[in-house]
Amino acid sequence: MEVVTTTNGMELVYQKPSTLTDTPFHYCPGCGHGVVHKLLMEVVEEMGIQEQTIGIAPVGCSVFAYNYMNVDMQEAAHGRAAAVATGVKRVFPDKYVFSYQGDGDLAAIGTGETIHTANRGENILVVFINNAIYGMTGGQMAPTTLLGMVTSTTPFGRQQAVMGFPLKITDLIAQLPGAYYVTRQAVHTTNAVRKTKKALRLALEYQPRKKGICFVEVVSNCPSGWKMTPVEANAWMEKNMFPMYPLGDLKVPQ
Amino acid sequence: MARKAQSHLPQSIRLRSGNQMMAEGALQAGCMFFAGYPITPATGIFKTMIDLLPAKGGIALSAPDEISAIAYCIGASMRGSRSMTATSGPGWALMIESIQYALMTETPLVVSLVQRLGPSTGGATQGAQGDVLLAEFCTSGGYTLPVLCPTNASECYELTILAFTWAELLRMPVILLSDKETGMTIESVDFSSLPRSTAQNRPSNFAFRDLGTHNRTERKGTYYFDALHEIPPFAPVGGDRKVTATGSAHDKQGRLQKNSTETIDVLKHLEQKISWRRDDFVSVVSDLQPSATTLVVSYGVTARAARSAVQQARNAGERISLLVIHSLFPIPVKKLAHALQGVDTVLVAEENMSGLYRSVLERYCKGAKVRGVNKIGAMITPEEILEAVFEEPWQPA
Ligand SMILES: Cc1ncc(C[n+]2csc(CCOP(=O)(O)OP(=O)(O)O)c2C)c(N)n1
Ligand code: SF4
Ligand SMILES: [Mg+2]
After folding, report:
1. Distance separating alpha carbons of residues A187 and A221, to the nearest angstrom
2. Count of CA atoms in the C-beta half-sphere (13 A) of B240
3. B280-335 pLDDT, tens per residue?
4. Distance (Å) from CA A246 to ligand 3 centroid
5. ipTM attached to this prediction
6. Minimal Cβ distance to A77: which of B40, B62, B120
7. Chain A to chain B Cβ contacts (< 8 Å)
8. CATH number of B285-390
9. Is the pLDDT of residue B216 over 60?
10. Owning domain of residue A215
């Protein structure tokens, strides 16, 4: 392996990918968004597809994704990312197209777009950041909010009788024949980070096969919206989110 | 020992945002159903309703998007529940389909539109007054929709009660047009001076003309009226008579028809029921000065700057009048005509680029020169209005 040395003579063992800009992330301390941005851009760099990649990140805390991801990016209206991605992919069938969406965006206002894009088997990658809350607008209940979970619009905890059950949209997607690869990962430990990166890599490698949608859910956190420290948030996530949203592959290519 | 801070203010004065006051006004008006979807700068209304409405026996629901939120409200309203939702520009765009449905089905509904900078996602935390025409002219056919516009937190409360009154009496959607500054600024509100009425009682300062068949118990169809301006008596779905409601063009029974005479009458009636009462639906604050030659017209947060500008201009010896319009639509033509007497210059101050409200007021200001004070991206200051008044840089005394 080639050894890179820095100007002061030390061996360079790690650096941020060239596909990420120098702009510092605006995300709250401990938030999963930044980690997933980095992983996705590492994969794009490693695959050498920076020039062929187009991303669509709608509103949500990742609305500024275009400031960090150094590929062509489009900000879509709330919920419309998968539909915009469809248009981009149809006219650029050989580009790598991904959407990057929060749970409010993908599983509430954009549910129709999500399901139909998957059902049509659009050859895109959907990166789905599930933090069980609307982070950007100040911590309101999302479709993925757990039963009993306190948010600003469920001050006494989400009650099933009033607001129904947490929506496991990734499980729904896995049922659709248009889905090619569906997996659920996390980024709270080194091991989990490695697995997520592998999933993102597979998903992008599959895209030229044109066999259908690749859907990568990342069970994530929102320390600010959850009103926890980053460490507490990750512990809470493991204890409460993972039983509802178990990690692992839901559908793999046959 | 810690001492409690002594307040010199009366007990009745509390700190509230315009958004909170809109929610409290809705509760006072007897609102029993609220559905919302988070969006800055309107989320405060949603959040306050979630916090307060269930304790009053009402229902406050989180919807998966604005399309659902407004549709939930229409369903509840068709059962007779006073209903409300709140949003901002991007969500309003999604609600327009159902606003039209509420108009067509003659379903009472109050929608609060707290404006932010557009177009599209625009600036979530940047105020604006750019949705005035998008609110009013959101229907195919350009039907008149009542639009009420508060300038401060107390008025958010008062106008919300009024909005429910209009919605209920006219059987139609009413829009509360707020803005980010009015909705999110926290200011003191004197609760002892707020109206105690609910929307059930018509506010005493508003004389509604004949409400037609509204109170008749006998019914000859969901949309029955004799004269075009009459309001059909409301019958709830799930009541003891069959009700047919439809957003398709329909006859007085609510049966889909294309262009029969009766169907065209129903469409005319949708406009007539409000235009016939347009002088009853006026809420303006006229601060007129005898022999004034300049009239400043403003609304929403900009009206606060206008008030200050007019005061300063008067201190400088200028004869100048001010019209703060709460009921933007239907346009208060009589009040406007009255304020225009002897006036040669009208200045319309509003936080949008091209003078949206000015463009519709102009035709009622014949004989006067109409100019705009406009800006986007920041609030209009009193100084900017004064510069427009004097047509030269403003030097404070
Ligand atoms: C039509 C419309 N409605 C509401 C909003 C306000 N809004 C912006 S982002 C967002 C939700 C973000 O939540 P999520 O997608 O879960 O992303 P997160 O911030 O949690 O990563 C909402 C409701 C909007 N921009 N447009
Ligand atoms: S609000 Fe939540 S989702 Fe948004 S950046 Fe902060 S921690 Fe992340
Ligand atoms: Mg989220």
Report:
1. 9
2. 3
3. 889 999 999 999 999 999 999 999 999 999 999 999 999 999 999 999 999 999 99
4. 18
5. 0.95
6. B120
7. 47
8. 3.40.50.920
9. no
10. 33-137+168-251
